[in-house]
Amino acid sequence: LGSSSSVPFTSIFSQLFMTVVVPLIIGQIVRRYIKDWLERKKPPFGAISSCVLLMIIYTTFCDTFANPNIDLDKFSLIIVVFIIFSVQMSFMFLTFLFSTRNNSTFTPADTVAIIFCSTHKSLTLGIPMLKIVFAGYEHLSLISVPLLIYHPAQILLGSLLVPTIKSWMVSRQK
């Protein structure tokens, strides 16, 4: 097309490594040494994790919709929501089909875990990745909208499907 661009792969990968991989490695190392203490004290990591996730979602929503350059009309937003719900349902249905094939060795409980774990992605990884890869890009807010919709959509769809999937799993385990 007669145009070119350069992508700073080294910078992007080093920032992603420092933001995602290094904290994970440090956490695993520290956990090994304080595992007994953690089991005795039982700190409220679930509540802390939920609060941190909520803060990430809140700040990202604020950054996204406070940006005057977002220029996102209601019809486009509805289309994005529809596409994301369709993609999420399609992914869940495909993983269900693949994990319940005749030659599959997965148990019904495995299938449920596969459906939810393979299709669910989190803002806690997606937003830092977007901010690193698209650093300085003026339309970063617009790029983050699908992820901001995908995360609540997966929670909503998952909670709506739990009774159906639970009854399927119970009927298959009998």
From TrEMBL:
TM annotation in the entry: 12-33, 45-66, 78-99, 111-137, 143-165
Annotated InterPro entries: Na+/solute_symporter_sf, Put_Na-Bile_cotransptr
Sorted UniProt keywords: Membrane, Transmembrane, Transmembrane helix
Domain of life: Eukaryota
One of the record's GO cellular component terms: plasma membrane
One matching Pfam family: SBF_like
Presence of the UniProt keyword Membrane in the record: yes
Family listed: Belongs to the bile acid:sodium symporter (BASS) (TC 2.A.28) family.
Name of protein: NTCP7 protein
